[in-house]
Design brief:
The protein is mainly beta and 371 residues long. The chain contains 2 helices and 34 strands.
C-alpha cells in the first residue's frame, strides 16, 4: 500500500476524533494507532486492506432498470404480490411534494401510475398486510413548513382505490414502518413538540413505537426502542424488525438543529416485546434505505450534515448469525431519501436525492444482483 491509496476507516463501537482519523490514514502510523485503539476496546476495521467481513460466493453487482415515472425522494416503499409500490415523496425544489402512487412490475420492467393518495405527503411509509397497503404518517407542507400527520390511508390494489384508515395515536413522520405478524409497526421518527407544530424545528425525535392490529382496528404501544432517531431504515428478518442508521436532530442554543447521524442497529422481537442491540453500522448514515434478502440485511446510501455535508454511495450487508457487516459494491448513483425493496435475489433501489437536502430528486432505478 502507498500513501495515495484510498482507505476507508470504520470504527464499530467507539468513534474516533477527526485528528485520529487523519493519523490513521497514514500508513506509517497505522500500527501504533491500531494498538492504541485496541487497548481502548475499540474494534478497528479498514477497507480494502482490512475487511469488515468477507463476502461469500459470487460478488453482487449493479445494473440499471426502468426509471420511475416521477423524480422524487424521501420514499418508504413496500412489496405486495411481486410488485413494488411507492407513494408520495418530495419533489424538486423541496417546496413541492406528491400524492402520486406507482407500482413497478419486474416481469415487464415497467412502472404504472395508480390512484393518487387522498392527500399529498412526503416521508409517508407503506406496509402490506392481508393484501392491502397501509400508508402511514409523513409530513405535509413544503420545507421548512413541515407538519407531521396522524391520518393513515388504506389502498386496495384490486379496485385501485384508497380509503381512510385508523389515525395514529400521535402524528409521526420520518419513522420506520413495517408489516410484521399481520400488524403494522411504527417506530421512532419525529413527532410534534406541540399540537399546532407547523415547522420542521417544532418536532422532536422519539423512541416510541406502536402497532396496528387490523382485526381489532386499533393502535397499541410497544416497548420503546433504545434510541430516539429519525430517518432510519428497517427490514423484517425471521419475524423480527431490524432498525438501522438514521440521525438525531439536536437543538442548539441559537434555535437551530444539529443533524447528527447514528450507526445503531436495534432489533425488535414482537413475541417478547423486547429490543436487542447488535453491532452498529461501520459508518453512520442517515436518510438511508434497507431491504432484507436471504436472511441478511442490506443497507444503501444516505447523507450526513456534520462534520461536513455528504451524500453516500456506500452499501453494506449485515449477517445476523455472525453479527457482522460486509462492504458491498457502492451505489452507481450516490443518493439519500431513496427507496429499496427486495424481489427474489435482486434489490431494487430507486429515487432519492443526489445532493444533501431536498433539491435534487431523481428517478434513477438501479438493481443489486445478489446471485
Amino acid at each position: 500500500m502507498n500513501a495515495s491509496s484510498t482507505v476507508r476507516l470504520v470504527i464499530l463501537h467507539t468513534l474516533p476524533t477527526m485528528r485520529d482519523m487523519d493519523a490513521l490514514t497514514r500508513p506509517s502510523s497505522f500500527s501504533r494507532h491500531r494498538r492504541a485503539a485496541l487497548r481502548l476496546g475499540t474494534a478497528l476495521v479498514a477497507a480494502p486492506w482490512l475487511q469488515v467481513g468477507q463476502a461469500q460466493g459470487p460478488t453482487p453487482h449493479w445494473r440499471t432498470a426502468a426509471p420511475a415515472s416521477l423524480a422524487r425522494q424521501e420514499l418508504y416503499p413496500e412489496v405486495l404480490d411481486g410488485r413494488i409500490y411507492v407513494a408520495g415523496g418530495l419533489l424538486s425544489p423541496n417546496t413541492g411534494y406528491s400524492a402520486h402512487l406507482e407500482a413497478y412490475d419486474p416481469a415487464t420492467d415497467r412502472w404504472t401510475r395508480l390512484a393518487t393518495l387522498p392527500e399529498a405527503r412526503h416521508h409517508i411509509a407503506l406496509a402490506a398486510v392481508d393484501g392491502l397497503l397501509y400508508a402511514v404518517g409523513g409530513f405535509s407542507g413544503g420545507f421548512p413548513n413541515w407538519r407531521a400527520q396522524a391520518q393513515t390511508y388504506v389502498y386496495e390494489p384490486s379496485t385501485n382505490r384508497w380509503r381512510d384508515g385508523v389515525a395514529l395515536p400521535q402524528p409521526n413522520a420520518e419513522g420506520v414502518v413495517a408489516a410484521l405478524d399481520g400488524k403494522v409497526y411504527v417506530v421512532g421518527g419525529r413527532v410534534r413538540a406541540h399540537p399546532d407544530a407547523r415547522h420542521f424545528n417544532a418536532h422532536v425525535d422519539t423512541a416510541r413505537g406502536v402497532a396496528f392490529d387490523p382485526a381489532r382496528g386499533r393502535w397499541s404501544p410497544i416497548a420503546e426502542a433504545p434510541t430516539a432517531r429519525n430517518s432510519a431504515a428497517s427490514a423484517v428478518i425471521d419475524g423480527q424488525l431490524y432498525v438501522v442508521g438514521g440521525r438525531q436532530a439536536l437543538p442548539q442554543p441559537d434555535g437551530t438543529l444539529r443533524q447528527v447521524n447514528v450507526p445503531h442497529l436495534e432489533i425488535y422481537d414482537p413475541a417478547r416485546d423486547r429490543w436487542t442491540v447488535r453491532a452498529p453500522m461501520p459508518q453512520a448514515q442517515g436518510g438511508l434505505a434497507a431491504a432484507a434478502a436471504g436472511g441478511r440485511l442490506y443497507v444503501f446510501g444516505g447523507e450526513q450534515w456534520v462534520p461536513e455535508p455528504k451524500v453516500f454511495a456506500d452499501c453494506w450487508m449485515y449477517e445476523p448469525g455472525a453479527d457482522r457487516w460486509t462492504a458491498l459494491p457502492p451505489l452507481p448513483t450516490p443518493r439519500h431519501g431513496l427507496g429499496a425493496a427486495a424481489l427474489g435475489h435482486r434489490i431494487h433501489v430507486f429515487g432519492g436525492g443526489r445532493r444533501v437536502g431536498g433539491d435534487a430528486a431523481t428517478d434513477v432505478h438501479e438493481v443489486l444482483e445478489l446471485a
